[in-house]
What we know:
CATH superfamily of the largest domain: NAD(P)-binding Rossmann-like Domain
Oligomer: single chain
Helix content: 40-55%
Shape: globular
Radius of gyration: 22 Å
Amino acid sequence: MIIIDQALARREAEGKPIRVGLVGTGFMGAGIVRQIVTATKGMRIVAVANRHIATAIQAVQDVGIEPLLCDSAQAISRVISSGYVAVTRDGEALASADGIDVVVEVTGSIDYAAGVVLAAISAGKHVVQMNAELDGTVGPILYAKARSAGVTYTFSDGDQPGVQMNLLRFVQGIGVTPVMCGNIKGLHDPHRTPETQRAFAEKWGQKPVMVSSFADGCKISYEQAIVANGTGFRVAQRGMVGLDFSGGDPTAPLFPLDEALPQLVEIIEEHGEGLVDYVVGCRPAPGVFVIGRHDDPRQRHFLNLYKLGPGPYYCFQTPYHLCHFEVPNSIARVCLFGDSVLAPTAGPRVGVVAAAKKDLRPGDTITEFGGFEAYGVAENYDVIERDRLLPMGIALDATLIRPVPKDHVLTYADVSLPKDRLIDNLYAQQSRRFGHNTLAA
């Protein structure tokens, strides 16, 4: 985003940096703190929240700043006004405090994160987040609430959904019609667990359960769902098609994505244009792609000259996503230009439903994304409504009341849900607002 660097440089020169409050200082959140403090002009971290306070303190100390501990919105406001960095256990207090322009939510939680986002919206603050699970569950209603409050709610650059949307806007900008947005994965096995992914997680300093959610398809289902909700696209089938060029071997040489275009076009021609999907075992990995169509023979001649092929379908690629390195771009786009990276403007078009990772029995509890009990699969929202399928974001902490065989999708009738959760209330509001009343029953 070339325009952003100049705008941020002006804010730095004027002594008016964008003031950022960040909630969630795990692997990704700590990286965002480091990126803003060490590499981003015109922007400041002024407050950090994490329920495990030692992690928040460490994230700030690691970049050479000694934070001040706070236990209320008023205390956070005072610390910010005095020029220090506040740390707190209370994400909602941070979101409500004065002296913050943008709240960045990166917890990976559901109910807690929803409370933080609502507090930020109520306090008139923009929200940038990297929580695909929250956005893929209740993003449309949060977006509607943000619009009513006159603030921006958006997903971030850096993660694959935001990178897809940037690429889609580029493709549209040169007059090509996007017909498929895609994600590139190195591995997909729905039965992976935190135990199978432990060694990889420890190597990279990540949580095994998070890495498991990458491997079992839960994360990519949420990522493609929120792209669908931002574009009006849909999935071709439950779980997406997911062409696999790896032969089940994640160490196999990667297949060139350009050469996969004919198979991707077959999916488009069979199921219609406007799809989200993914491929396994292709390069550039871990990048993203957009398939676009051009109907002008003369423009197709030029695209062929520029090595994109004869058309009418063309494959555009971004060969990387740089996670926390790119988040400051999103903050600047929101705060300086009112520009959302990716927001659920099309309403709920695709959701993520829970499928049994093993044979589930009455009394079993679904504990977490990437856990031992369930994985998420993308499904079109009208099917979720019609069949009362259980959204994965609602399934957390649910207890089975009847058996569900391995790989079967759960329904509301299969579980007992915890009482008085914010996420259920928001999901019901979303269902009513967008006409999915059976889900709100």
